[in-house]
Amino acid sequence: MSETRKTHAVTVAGVTRQLPLFEVAPGVTIAILNILGDTEFVQAAAGELAARLPGDAYDVLVTAEAKSIPLAHALSVAARKPYVVLRKIYKPYMGAAISAETVSITTGIPQTLYLDEKDHALLKGKRAALVDDVVSTGSTQKGMRAVMEKAGAQVTLEAAIFTEGDPETWQGFIALGHLPVWLES
After folding, report:
1. Fold topology of 7-183
2. Which of 29, 44, 79, 131 is deepest in the core (most CB within 10 A)?
């Protein structure tokens, strides 16, 4: 990381990280959480989320690839619940995949989320907890909900390590903290 890059400190379950700040659109800066490879932080976050998610309220954890996969895995182990990853690229081995389109703040371009054919039975008629690392605009959540509806699953919980942006947007969301958005005026 650039020595001159500004950061924003976050702490989860006693584990502190300095998140680098990046301008993602003209005049809009966010703190980037990248949990890939950060086992200590992932384990801390998964433990905290597992304690906050009522185990009798969901059957399956669902996340979108890629950065939140380690969180879903660790949460799956802690909660003793299966997890499903919605992919962003269709591969032929995924068979009759279910899909929905979304736009992420970090990519800024339309993406499609795909549910692998092998996971249809795991979700049909089940209660799903949607999990992400950071929820900012809600577009990925919207795409995940659309896939769950098409798969015949009921979304009963939504959780993330952090929410971002307007805190009022995330009422009822289970999160360990909130990240600000810096707007240049």
Report:
1. Rossmann fold (3.40.50)
2. 131
